[in-house]
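quick one: nicotinamide-adenine-dinucleotide bound model?
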Amino acid sequence: MILIDGKKAAAELREELRHEVTGLKAKYNKVPGLTVILIGDLTPSQIYVRNKEKSANEVGLKSEVIKYPDSVEEKTVLEKIKELNKDETVSGILVQLPLPKHIDKQKVIETILPSKDVDGFHPMNVGNLSSGYESSVPCTPLGCYLLIKKVEPNLNGKKAVIVGRSNLNGKPMTQLLLKENCTVTITHSKTKDLKAECLEADIIVAAVGIPELVKGDWVKRDTIVIDVGINKTDKGIVGDVDFDEVSKNAKALTPVPGGVGPMTIACLLKNTIECFKRSQI
Ligand code: NAD
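yep, here:
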């Protein structure tokens, strides 16, 4: 079985991006800039943002974190986003989710200029992705896609089963694999026989949030399995795939941690650079 090393793949991608930023700096005499807005003091969000800032600096991006307390008014955040939309030194804007209840997530997402939406959540980017046009692609599915392509560069005609239909993961993952000519089945909590669907798959992407849902006997011998899940359990952090069982069957599998997670941040940097490049045309 191929253990898909997301840490290594992310380090390689960051190295490529570092070179690209050096080239962009030489060409334009400026570097792409990423601004992250962090609201409140949720520990996981703080850790994510710290890692994003560290990785951005590593590849030579200009990065900035704007922090607000939980009590910040929605209009203050929206005004700040509008200011950043106009700032030419800012190529990408990310508002770290989740947000406090009094702030409308969709309003925040839609206030970010689509051309600076490094998360790919703006309806215009969602629409462009599903129409097959150029767009920012949500970082986690983009990372999954790059990992799958490392194992199998030609996905023509492969059967892919996506477990979970979230806007963040399942739906954009479906679009990316459709673009690669996969036959895609998207499954969810109301799917009648998930095991039978998975047994048809050459590629399984599990993004559910249920610890070790995908079992060994759900997976054919030549299947590539990508585990997006991050679940806190008594035995530590586990994915949505039963790693011990599935690793005996699958052709390739991502571990948790060390699989999809590191690629997510590297893809955020990639998206920031893409936004910068598009803004220079
Ligand atoms: P979500 O809660 O928004 O969506 C979960 C999806 O799973 C839903 O579409 C639901 O229909 C489906 N589902 C629920 N129960 C099911 C079942 N029994 N069978 C089949 N489908 C079922 O979740 P999300 O935001 O997509 O996150 C999914 C997981 O991925 C979580 O564990 C999250 O922590 C993790 N995650 C990881 C990264 C990363 O960088 N690795 C990034 C984002 C999310």
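Residues 140, 163-166, 168-170, 187-189, 191, 194, 207-210, 228-231, 260-261, 264 surround nicotinamide-adenine-dinucleotide (CB under 6 Å).
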